[in-house]
Write a structure and sequence with these properties.
By secondary structure, this protein is α/β, with parallel strands linked by helices. It is 42% helix and 21% strand. A hairpin with a 3-residue loop joins strand 1 and strand 2.
């Protein structure tokens, strides 16, 4: 798509803002990716909406330069933002206002990033998505606009798991096993060895004293899976619990949308699921086959910014060819049998 220099670009500024990273893409109305940039995570619940959006400015400026825009003015037609930590209507409103105040798009759409994952893995607005990354969340959508959502505010709203939750639980069991309050587990020695320390309690002390960054705890997910693969019962139970939680979220969303008796894609994404650890993924598939046999699990490997861009193109009434051109720029998903699969939107209404 050839863009005259310094003119507004008809299309979408797609934003996928997560806890650990943020992707921004500028997409033409014909589906061409005109610019892409990646930055760190954003946390509006800690910094405030305005400051969080301010942090996206360098990324937006980067994609504008890549597209040949060097002067001020409205960048494009639509801003489509799929964002973590946007779980309540008031949070959507605040971020919508903060983005609308920027000269980025004529119109703005803000949704939770789970909807971006869902759109990336489906041919249209119907299905359920479960994100298991740093945290865990689930959303479902019907063509008529009805949704199924969860508050996703952590333990306060009954959530369990994701990389952060699994790592914390591994530490809890390892520390108690080490001092005698809990059942024996190989997790303590494995956690200590990973960080070059004596055990889990030594790791906890190092974090408490500032000798080890607390953010590194998420790395323990790989230790948990390795320990489970070696047959440790405690580690195996934690992974089984995570599989159960993922399945429960999906089934509740399917039930809320009356989709349990309809073949429906269940999109699985986020770092923990995208790693495709068999102990977790095969467990989830087996559970879904038992309680929701018509569910069609798919693991998405494309960046969720694809979903944000597709939602933007949907809003603009872009052609099926444009949506397919956009998809061709990204590896999309893995089917339940592990073969590469690319949804085709060529027959979908604009």
């Amino acid at each position: 798509m050839k863009i005259p220099q310094n003119e507004q670009i008809p299309g979408v500024l797609a934003i996928d803002a997560g806890n650990s990273k943020t992707d921004v893409a500028l997409v033409g109305i014909d589906g061409s990716v005109l610019g892409a940039a990646r930055g760190g995570g954003y946390q509006p619940h800690r910094t405030g909406a305005r400051q969080a959006i301010e942090g996206l400015t360098p990324l937006v400026e980067s994609v504008a330069r890549q597209a040949g825009l060097t002067r001020g003015g409205i960048l494009t037609t639509r801003v489509s933002a799929c964002m973590a930590n946007v779980d309540l209507p008031i949070e959507e409103q605040r971020l919508h206002a903060a983005i609308a105040a920027r000269p980025w798009g004529l119109t703005v759409g803000v949704v939770n990033d789970t909807f971006g994952l869902l759109r990336a893995g489906t041919d249209g607005p119907c299905g359920v998505a479960v994100v298991c990354g740093a945290g865990i969340n689930c959303a479902g959508l019907l063509p008529d606009g009805r949704t199924a959502r969860f508050p996703a505010l952590g333990v306060l709203t009954g959530d369990w798991g994701g990389g952060g939750g699994m790592a914390a639980e591994a530490m809890w069991h390892a520390a108690r096993a080490e001092d005698g309050r809990g059942e024996p587990t190989a997790l303590s020695a494995a956690i200590g060895a990973y960080f070059g320390l004596a055990g889990a309690n030594a790791v906890a002390e190092a974090i408490h004293l500032g000798q080890l960054a607390e953010q590194r705890l998420h790395e323990l997910v790989r230790v948990l899976f390795a320990t489970a693969e070696a047959g440790d019962p405690t580690a195996l139970r934690l992974i089984d619990r995570q599989a159960d939680e993922i399945t429960r979220l999906a089934v509740v969303a399917l039930r809320k949308l009356d989709l349990l008796d309809t073949p429906t894609p269940v999109i699985l994404g986020g770092g923990v699921l995208a790693a495709r650890q068999p102990l977790l993924v095969e467990n989830v598939k087996a559970r879904l086959a038992e309680v929701a046999p018509l569910a069609e699990p798919r693991i998405v490997v494309a960046p969720p910014v694809l979903g944000a861009a597709l939602l933007g193109l949907d809003h603009l009434g872009a052609s099926a060819a444009a949506r397919q051109r956009l998809r061709s720029a990204y590896p999309t998903l893995s089917a339940s049998d592990g073969r590469p699969e690319f949804p085709s939107e060529m027959g979908q209404p604009a």
